[in-house]
Amino acid sequence: MPRIAGVSIPENKRVEIAITYIYGIGNSLSKEILKETKIDPNKKAKDLTPAEVNSLKEVIEKTHKIEGDLRRQVMINIKRLKDIGTWRGLRHIKKLPVRGQRTKTNTRTVRGNVRKTMGSGRKPAAAPT
């Protein structure tokens, strides 16, 4: 398994898809990187030569913010929003959707899958004594 930026990329996938396993690299950025390094996007990751892997590492690590640095930057940005008390920061603090989604319905994942409908928490009828 080739390792790039501390991430083992899958061998059985095309290089174009395999490098998207690195946090901060999506489809469009992977295409740009492969164009810059002149590597065939349809090539499997296991077929990469050591020289190609090294060129990928160099381009990715020198020109793009990925993995730990990017995660740290995102955390710092969220912390800044919380500290200055912006609306988005308050939504982060309350663990609610930040980008204007509705919350009356459709926020099950954010609210921890809370079901507040009639039938969900109904108790069985009392047994006669």
UniProtKB/TrEMBL annotation:
Gene behind the chain: rpsM
Subunit structure: Part of the 30S ribosomal subunit. Forms a loose heterodimer with protein S19. Forms two bridges to the 50S subunit in the 70S ribosome.
Entry protein name: Small ribosomal subunit protein uS13
Pfam families, A to Z: Ribosomal_S13
Any single GO CC term annotated in Swiss-Prot or TrEMBL for this entry: small ribosomal subunit
Organism: Candidatus Staskawiczbacteria bacterium RIFCSPHIGHO2_02_FULL_33_16
UniProt record similarity statement: Belongs to the universal ribosomal protein uS13 family.
Region (Disordered): 102-129
Keyword Membrane in annotation: no
GO biological process terms held by the UniProt record: translation
Lineage: Bacteria, Candidatus Staskawicziibacteriota
Function description: Located at the top of the head of the 30S subunit, it contacts several helices of the 16S rRNA. In the 70S ribosome it contacts the 23S rRNA (bridge B1a) and protein L5 of the 50S subunit (bridge B1b), connecting the 2 subunits; these bridges are implicated in subunit movement. Contacts the tRNAs in the A and P-sites.
InterPro entries named among the record's database cross-references: Rbsml_uS13_C, Ribosomal_uS13, Ribosomal_uS13-like_H2TH, Ribosomal_uS13_bac-type, Ribosomal_uS13_CS
Keywords: Ribonucleoprotein, Ribosomal protein, RNA-binding, rRNA-binding, tRNA-binding
